[in-house]
Specification:
Structural class: alpha/beta
Shape: globular
Helix content: 25-40%
Number of helices: 5
Low-confidence stretches: none
Distance between the termini: 12 Å
CATH architecture: 3-Layer(aba) Sandwich
Largest sheet: 5 strands, parallel
Amino acid sequence: MKILVINGPNLNMLGRRDTAIYGTDTLQDAERRIGERAEALGIDVEFFQSNHEGAIVDCIQTEAQDADGIVINAGALTHYGISLRDALADSRLPFIEVHLSNIHAREEFRHHSVFAALAVGQIAGLGWRGYLFALEFLVEQIKESRGS
């Protein structure tokens, strides 16, 4: 089983960007923890991060055919990334939306996600641990849907 773990704009700045909200861990720290959990689950993960919506769309269009699901933190694209929403829908893969901070406790414009209605679920406000919870849940859901 292969899960894509996709991160959008500014997530490459974790550890330096507004640490009061996002903490001091870097994206590489999160990816290491996700990789360790994936290994324990016996699955493969592929990481991708870009500050450009089109690059993320390209990644989904290219990699979805060999993947079983997606964990995505689209950053600010969550609120207006319609082409990203369409790529997620077209992939026909189950996905979980992750946010490090609680987007519902922040500025009004952050409260709405353009792809939440398509997602299996949304995890917000649990920091880097949200990725682990998303990965575990998604793997279990995929196994259950396959009857394994």
